[in-house]
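agent> fetching stored inputs for the flavin-adenine dinucleotide docking request
agent> found them:
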Amino acid sequence: MTVSSAPDPMLPEPLRIARAKRETHGVFTFELDVSARGGFPFLPGQFNMLYPFGAGESAISISSDPHQPDRLEHTIRAVGAVTRAIERLGRGDVVGVRGPFGSAWPIREAEGRDLVVIAGGIGLAPLRPVVYHALRRREAFGKVALLYGTRTPDDILYRKEIERWRGRLDVEVEVTVDTAGSDWRGNTGVVTKLISRAAFDPGRAFAMICGPEIMMRFCARELERLGVSLDRIWITMERNMRCGTGLCGHCQFGPSFVCKDGPVYRYDRVQDLLLVREV
Amino acid sequence: MEQESLARSIAQHPLVAGMSDEHVDFLSGCVRNARLDEGQFLFREGQRADELYLIRSGKLALEIHDGARGTIVAETVGGGDALGWSTLFPPYRWELDARGVHFAHLFAIDGACLRAKLEADHDFGYAFTRRLLNEVHSRLQRARLQALDVYRARP
Ligand SMILES: Cc1cc2nc3c(=O)[nH]c(=O)nc-3n(C[C@H](O)[C@H](O)[C@H](O)COP(=O)(O)OP(=O)(O)OC[C@H]3O[C@@H](n4cnc5c(N)ncnc54)[C@H](O)[C@@H]3O)c2cc1C
Ligand code: FES
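agent> prediction call returned; pasting C-alpha cells
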C-alpha cells in the first residue's frame, strides 16, 4: 500500500516567527522560519491561509522575494479578530500556515514590455514580490514604474525600501498621499494622478494594480484613457475565504472562486462583475 | 522673436499641446515667464486671482488653512499641470494658497487678457475651453476618489 506524501492542503503547517517588524500604525510584517522544510517556493501574487491557533484563519498574501524562498514574509493589517490575534504574536511564536494558494501576477507575459505597478495602501504587500522580481530581472522589462498611493505620510509601507528603490536610475518610483500637513514635501493627491505623469508607453505597457476595489477601478479607467488595453491590466480581488482550495464555495466571485481562479485576475474578464452589486 | 520662442515653449505644455499654431500665437500674447522659489507663495486665499499658471517644472502645494487643523495640503501640482481657474470666473478670488515646494518654472497667463481673447475668438475659446473642461473633469474624478478616503480601515 502506498501513502501519498503530498501535504494535506487543509492541514496547517506550524511555522515559527523568525522576525517581527512593525511597519506603520496597525501594520506589521512577520518572517516565518522555513529552514526546516527547505524553503517555501511561491509565485508573486499567491497567498497563504494563516492560522493563529484557536482564533480562525485569514488569507494573507506573501510579500517577500520569490527569488529567496528561504525567507517567507507576510505583511498584515490588524482589522479584526484573526488579524489582531496574529498581531499579538511575536518572535518565536508559532502560526499555522496553509498554502501557497491562488493565481499569480503575469510576470512572464509582461516580459519585454513596460511594467506599471500601481499599489494602494496595504495593496503594496501583494505587489512587493513583483517589484523584487522586476528589479532582479531588470533587463527583461522595458520601463518599470512603481506608483504608490496611501492615506498619509505615516502610512507609507516599506518606507526605507521604497527610498532605496527610488535611488535607482532604472525605475520610476512615485509615492503620493491622500492627506498631509504642510511639512510633507512629497506628492499629495490620489494615485491616478501619478499614472498620467509616469513615463511608459501605453501601447506596450502591462499594468498590475492592487488596492481597494474603488481605487483599482479608477486606476483601470485612467489607464484605459491613456490607451492601455484592458487585457494588459491585472488586478486582485479579495473575498472572505475558508478552505482556500476551491472546495467550499465561500469565496465565490461570479462564476469563479477567488482562492483558485484568483486572487489575480485580468481586468477585462472581471470588470463587469466588479460593477454587479452583491457578487 | 522673443514672442515666437515663448509661443514655441508654451506649445509643449500638455494643456496647450495640439492647439493650432495660430491659437498658440494668439494665447502667447497674454503670457509671461515666471518662477517661484521654495517656500514662496504664488497666491493666497482671498486675494484677487488675476493670472492662470501653466507649470513647466517644480512642485507646488495647494493648501487650505483651517484654524483647528492647521494647514492641510489639498493636492500638490507639478510640471504639466495648470493652476488658477479662479482667474476665469467671478469674483476672481483665490480659493486656496499655492506655495512652492520645489523651485518652479511657470507660464503666467494674464487673466483679463485671456478672458478678452476667449470672447474675441470663439474658435480659440472653444479649443481652450475644451481643454479646460478635460482638466476640470480629471480634477473632479481625483477629488471624488480623495474624498472617499479608500485606505481607511473599515470599522
Ligand atoms: C487573497 C487575499 C489576500 C489578502 N492579503 C492580505 C494581506 O497581505 N495583508 C492583509 O492585512 N490582509 C490581506 N487580506 C485581507 C485579510 O484576509 C482580512 O483582512 C482578514 O481575513 C480579516 O480577518 P479578521 O478576522 O482579522 O477581521 P474580520 O473580523 O473578518 O473583519 C473585521 C473588520 O475588518 C473589515 N475587513 C475585513 N477584511 C478587510 C480588508 N481586506 N480590508 C479592510 N477591512 C477589512 C471587516 O469589514 C470588518 O469590519 C487578503 C485577503 C484575501 C482574500
Ligand atoms: S475559500 Fe473555499 S472555495 Fe474559495
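agent> quick read of the result: The helical segments of chain B are 2-10, 21-28, 111-120, 122-148.
agent> awaiting further instructions
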